[in-house]
# Entry
Amino acid sequence: MLRILSIISIFAIWSFAAGDATFEGKRDLNISAIAMFLVFILGTLGITYWAAKRTKSASDFYTAGGGITGFQNGLAIAGDYMSAAAFLGVSGLIYMNGYDGVIYAVSFLVGWPVILFFMAEKLRNLGKFTFADIAAYRLGQKEIRTLAAFGSLSVVILYLIAQMVGAGKLIQILFGMDYEYAVFMVGALMIIYVTFGGMLATTWVQIIKAVLLLSGVSFMALMVLWHFGFNFESLAQTAVNNHIKGEEILKPGGFLSDPISAISLGMALMLGTAGLPHVLMRFFTVGNAKEARKSVVYATGFVAYFWIIISIVGLGAIAFLNSPDGAQYMEGAKAYLDGGKLFGGSNMASVHLSHMLGGNAFLGFISAVAFATILAVVSGLTLAGASAISHDIYANVINPNASDEKVVKISKITVIIVGIIGVTLGIAFESQNIAYMVGLAFGIAASANFPILFLSIYWSKLTTRGAFIGGFMGLITAVMLVILGPNVWVQILGNKEAIFPYAHPALFSVTVAFIGIWFFSITDNSKRANEDRAKFRAQNIRANTGIGSAGAVSH
Amino acid sequence: MKENLVERIEANPKYQELLKKRDSLALKLGIFVLVMFYSYITIIAFNKELFATKVWEDGVTTIAFPIALAILVISFITTLIYVRRANGEFDDLTNEIKKDVKDYI
# Structure
């Protein structure tokens, strides 16, 4: 453990010291940034060491032993949500397009209440470790767990790539470290956190990061508002004056120009929330349904607050960075209104703003927090991916008699493999837009995971065949439409015109999934189907009352 | 679960009361949030200019901002309303049901 730690620290320092010469103007700020950065890495590795000593059973590894409180879990859920795409991506979207970034923020939030009202409690009562537990409660274990593992892994890997790209870009810009090394370092740290510390370490890293991120962004928003005498109108006026699009930035609808795309994205962001495997896992880290509900209230509160202040930070970035003083953050030091482009792209808007508002120390703080954000989110994601393989596929399909130790061991091997895949794809997808990729991950979660979860809880006539075929139809449709859509077919594969005209497929793929599940369930007259349906009554009682479900503490 | 536990719970009037109360609250709040959100998205999709109306006559701020703020705040308040009742009234009912069927679990 200590050896790995020291190797990483040396590697990190060496990489920063060997920083790229093109970042001359910014070299002096590296010291405080590196200091903050190392403090964070040492601190979180300390947590991992502490957690490793307490992580003994599979339950400890997947759910932190079920001993997390509602408030802590609320912070951790909010932390999983406030990823690099949220912090860097949405503030960058607002910086680029104005109000359209706010639409993302609003759509990301409204999924929460809906999950709480219709699903959270039932998920908590039926599940144990993963979302497949719920769907497999009365349906065929093998089919459902295979489907769920595919759905989870697709979402996890897409989401992971987005975070890796964000991390690589951030480190590259801040410290002048090579992109590949940056991605490699994130991958290595993530593997250490998850394999040694499991859910307990992942949760605590997430909680600490959520607190740091919320305070850092609050400070930024306060500084912005203070500068404008706490008058939103004068902030908006300055932003309008300093943006090429002028008053357009305060109106909705620039990039969601056609109605189908707008509705489809809204659907993906909302329903996808209910199908994110790393967020669903967090319902099982608390002791009972009461704490699970509380954690959703806290999470909703923190995330809503976060979106409000991010909107102010985004407008502040327009007002500050596009001013004459902001020219130092533009490539070639050309002011924005004279055609200057933000150094490192629009995703770095809030990072540059932190330097402008609080100098080198604050830049160091924000960069360490942004890096922590990425690490914490990729750890949670990797753990969800590992559970899909070890718990759903290995322990329930391949070897049902496997011991706890064996399953945890398989998890750790999976973590390493998922880590390597993440690093490799992170490097391959260097030039992809992170906010868009997260939108896609939500789209797949909404199409493959959400319909199965929802119908298995509410529809007594659901059968294994219907869920299996319909679920895969949703997953495949979502993936195919993404490939045939404008972002992949035109921009990556270089074709002239997209076969499928919309960038966001959820409206179509979610519909296909629901119709597929419905059709293949009602036409299913097998013996198995009747058994599946007969089990609904007992499942419904457990889902509603929790009677018969093991508390997370006493697995 | 024992054989007749399902029948026993389903026949318990408290269980019926729990389902009725909770489903009706969840449905009301859920429909409220869904209608609010999809109205927002639909207006953006079909009539953007509606949100471009100015808040102050001589200012630049559009009503799209207070509307987004309102959706965020209302979403949070609805979760608060639900959890208050679920953690009080509904949990009490659930515990009573558990007590009633204690010997059968």
